[in-house]
């Protein structure tokens, strides 16, 4: 379905981003990976799906590196058709104890990076009159939790940016939508499970059950594969008129 298209997924060396990159690659899209940590493993996983893959190590807190990464997609594959703004970090603390540098980093990586990448990617998408911009927001783009001020502010911002991007391009073939997962068991969430286990003196398994039980009625994690399937749908022609939505996949979290 996506043969001949190029997809750039930010923060795709791990977790949800890698899951989405693999789902798009399985549909035939060439992939630009981005993110820190192990790169060879994710590159091999995408290559095994029979598409071309490239890596750019832009730091999502740096606007000039983001612009360079979008340019890299164009020079490597000749186009950039699908942009998935996914990179994100978390820090958990009450506002009065929240380190200012963590606030700045979360706003830059989780929110501003989506603006910078979208700004750089839009002109050629508009010139081709086809494009898909998918912003990985969160249930925290729709509702709040205590001790996540920067994350909740950034993700609400991402949902707002999604709506503006969708509206500005509503008469074109370029759509923009947000995906809002509940809990997904990635390294980002494993850290929160570990912190809960340590704080309460309980096992990892008990901490996981408590974490899910507090917020997610299904008591199940959403998987990167399920989120990848949603991204594939948003890239399909069936989603031509899906514009500016914030689509939750959250086990009922925001239905409460
Ligand atoms: P993860 O920690 O597994 O992956 C994060 C990715 O972002 C990694 O590839 C990492 O290298 C990259 N990254 C971090 N800082 C970066 C930077 N400065 N520049 C470039 N890349 C950077 O986390 P995840 O859970 O897969 O999170 C992915 C996205 O999904 C985030 O935006 C997160 O907020 C969102 N999300 C996660 C959950 C969840 O439960 N895990 C729920 C809702 C939304």
TrEMBL record:
A GO molecular-function annotation: 3-hydroxybutyrate dehydrogenase activity
Lineage: superkingdom: Bacteria
UniProt-listed GO biological process terms: monocarboxylic acid metabolic process
Coiled coil location: none
InterPro entries reported for this sequence: 3-OHbutyrate_DH, NAD(P)-bd_dom_sf, Sc_DH/Rdtase_CS, SDR, SDR_fam
Pfam families tied to this protein: adh_short (PF00106)
Family: Belongs to the short-chain dehydrogenases/reductases (SDR) family.
Protein name: 3-hydroxybutyrate dehydrogenase
């Amino acid at each position: 379905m996506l043969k001949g298209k190029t997809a750039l997924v930010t923060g795709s060396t791990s977790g949800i981003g890698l899951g989405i990159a693999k789902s798009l690659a399985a549909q035939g899209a060439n992939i630009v990976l981005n993110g820190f940590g192990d790169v060879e493993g994710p590159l091999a996983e995408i290559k095994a799906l029979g598409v071309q893959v490239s890596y750019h190590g832009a730091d999502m807190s740096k606007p000039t590196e983001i612009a360079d990464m979008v340019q890299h997609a164009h020079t490597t594959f000749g186009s950039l058709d699908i942009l998935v703004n996914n990179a994100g970090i978390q820090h958990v603390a009450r506002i009065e104890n929240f380190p200012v540098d963590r606030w700045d980093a979360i706003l830059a990586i989780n929110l501003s990076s989506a603006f910078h990448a979208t700004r750089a990617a839009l002109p050629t998408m508009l010139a081709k009159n086809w494009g898909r911009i998918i912003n990985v927001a969160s249930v925290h783009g729709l509702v709040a939790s205590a001790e996540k001020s920067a994350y909740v502010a950034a993700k609400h911002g991402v949902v707002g940016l999604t709506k503006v991007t969708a509206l500005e391009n509503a008469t074109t073939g370029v759509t923009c939508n947000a995906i809002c997962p509940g809990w997904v068991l990635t390294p980002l969430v494993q850290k929160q499970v570990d912190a809960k286990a340590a704080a309460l003196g309980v096992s990892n398994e008990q901490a996981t059950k408590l974490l899910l039980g507090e917020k997610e009625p299904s008591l199940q994690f959403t998987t990167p594969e399920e989120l990848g399937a949603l991204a594939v749908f948003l890239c399909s022609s069936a989603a031509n008129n899906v514009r500016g939505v914030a689509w939750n996949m959250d086990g009922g979290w925001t239905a409460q």
